[in-house]
Design a protein that fits this description.
The protein is an alpha/beta fold and about 300 residues long. It has two domains: about 5-135 and about 245-300, Periplasmic binding protein-like II (D-Maltodextrin-Binding Protein, domain 2), CATH 3.40.190.10; about 140-235, Osmoprotection protein (prox), domain 2 (D-Maltodextrin-Binding Protein, domain 2, 3-Layer(aba) Sandwich), CATH 3.40.190.120. The protein contains twelve helices and eleven strands. The strands form three sheets. A five-stranded mixed beta sheet has the order 8-7-9-6-10. A three-stranded mixed beta sheet has the order 1-3-2.
Length: about 300
């Protein structure tokens, strides 16, 4: 989920935005609680399971606070940020390091406070306000099957890179990962990994795990908070060179929509969103197949 855009990327983002600005159907929470609404809020959703879950969590919390919130399904970061800056959406659950790297390539570090401060400055110039991050974080994770790990003694990304010197590995990942310095390009540059075939997979999905187990590819990218990782025979490799800084979930708001009251609601939600709660909700939606809006409403309620 991350970062820079080229001119051609802007065109693609505009197309994606035109197609993507639709409500999420069954995933949408859109009922303000009693009395007059405090106003409409459009919550943008990234196009992967946790992105849809978090958008519904934000919408449920905003509805509980008296707003009339709806979820707008979008695609990857270029489209989401463009929509937020234009005011086509009002709020989006974002990620600190990913957002920072989007605004300024390869600038996120291990210093969480510095990352947030720089992000707020850069985003402000684009008409976007960032509030207080949640304790919950979701980094990219590099995953192999347990069988592959045990047969080849691979438990770290460096060990996989060493293995790849003789046998280049096939990789499964999102469309975005293929062109990002924190993902495929970073594995090649930072770790010297030799990557052969690259197969586009649906992030955070059981079919993505199945591809590993069938050896369609030897390594795949997941989100570190994915529920599917806890219920399958896979190993998350240690990112021993720190390719991915902490990526805490954070409310991003169109500056024209930002108010002290909205900030209070979203910061209060952030305080509740712990790593344990995120993992639990991801398991319920990804493994147990509970609807996003129902899980979100239970969490907020």
């Amino acid at each position: 989920m991350r970062k820079t855009r080229r001119a051609i990327g802007l065109v693609a983002a505009a197309v994606a935005l035109t197609v993507g600005l639709t409500a999420c159907g069954d995933d949408t929470t859109e009922t303000a609680t009693g009395g007059d609404s405090k106003g409409d809020i459009k919550v943008g959703a990234f196009d992967f399971p946790e992105g849809r879950l978090l958008a519904n969590v934000y919408a449920a919390a905003l509805n509980e606070a008296g707003y009339k919130a709806s979820v707008v399904q979008l695609s990857q970061r270029e489209a989401v940020q463009l929509a937020l800056q234009k005011g086509d959406i009002d709020v989006v659950p974002e990620y600190v390091s990913s957002s920072l790297n989007f605004y300024k390539a390869e600038s996120a570090t291990a210093d969480d406070a510095k990352n947030l401060a720089e992000l707020k400055t850069l985003a402000s110039a684009k008409g976007v306000t960032y509030y207080t991050p949640a304790p919950a974080t979701d980094n990219y994770a590099y995953v192999v099957s347990k069988d592959f790990s045990e047969k080849n003694n691979v438990t770290t990304v460096s060990e996989l890179a060493a293995y790849s010197q003789k046998t280049p590995v096939a990789m499964g990942g999102s469309q975005e990962c293929r062109d990002r310095s924190y993902c495929k390009l970073g594995l090649e540059k930072t770790y010297g990994m030799k990557i052969g075939d690259y197969k586009v997979i649906v992030l955070s999905s059981q079919p993505a795990v199945d591809g590993l187990l069938k050896n369609d590819y030897q390594v795949a990218v997941f989100n570190s908070s994915d529920g599917v990782l806890a219920t399958n025979p896979v190993v998350t490799l240690e990112d021993d060179k720190g390719l991915n800084p902490n990526d805490n979930i954070v409310p991003a708001v169109n500056a024209k929509k930002a108010t002290p009251e909205l900030e209070q609601v979203l910061n209060g939600l952030s305080a509740k969103l712990t790593q344990e709660e995120l993992l639990r909700m991801n398991k319920e939606t990804q493994n147990d197949r509970r609807p996003f809006d129902k899980v979100a409403e239970d969490f907020v309620g």
